[in-house]
Task: structure prediction
Amino acid sequence: MWDAFSRIFSYIDPYIQFPYVIQHVIDISIVAFVLYKLLLLIRETRAEQVLKGLAILLFATKLSEILQFNTIYWILKNTATVGVIALLIVFQPELRRALEQIGRGQLFDKLMFVHDDKDPGIIINEIVRAVQSMAKSRIGALIVVERKTGINDVIETGVKIDGVLTSSLLENIFTPNTPLHDGAVIIRGDRIAAAGCFLPLTDNTSISKQLGTRHRAALGISETSDALAIVVSEETGVISIAGNGKLTRYLDSKALREMLKKVYIREKEPRSFIPKKWRSRNEQ
Result:
């Protein structure tokens, strides 16, 4: 028996020596750190939702194999073969952005904002007050409220603000002849994440020719994400909302408030990977 223990110990001895332990710890730490930064890179983008869907498909494939659902397993397994090419197409914006940041040496910079939300009622009041004021003065505005699907790729096209959401700040941004009044404002939680952002225009040819670029941009972002886009017409002062690829016009303050409640009250949830107790330490 002693000989058996001696052979086992001689086999694992090289792996438990101090230099090897340090080497493995460093190796695993580097891989974990890179994976963590990659997760931050795709967080708050459409790629995050795609990854969740991919994880469900992988789980379904393995489950069908265990339960011996041969037909389902065959379909899912062969779909995964083509899925590699599909993923490269789906993740093209994220891959391009990652390569650009590596080239600039910015991959390991801070990639997100983290803070707690205010009372939803206060946020809704601030947005409604600003929209009403701009509609009355006929000041054109385009406000995008982020929901579950992150739109970091859109935020990066504008000027990052990360400011507390107030009606005064919103009105000031859209004041005519100011540097940021022509683009879109992105609202994330209780913060104005960025202003002067460029949105994708809709390809829908059936919409009215009377609608301008703001309305087409609002429809475009609602088609590519679950964001809610609020538009104030510069010509008429009419308030419109785009959601799920559909445009609703001629809204009053009551209707606008009800639609915002669906975002801030019924769908309110924490968006940070970082535990609350860690966030409080960093903010002190």
Q: What stands out?
A: The first strand starts at residue 141 and ends at 145. Residues 106-117, 268-284 have pLDDT under 50 and may be disordered.
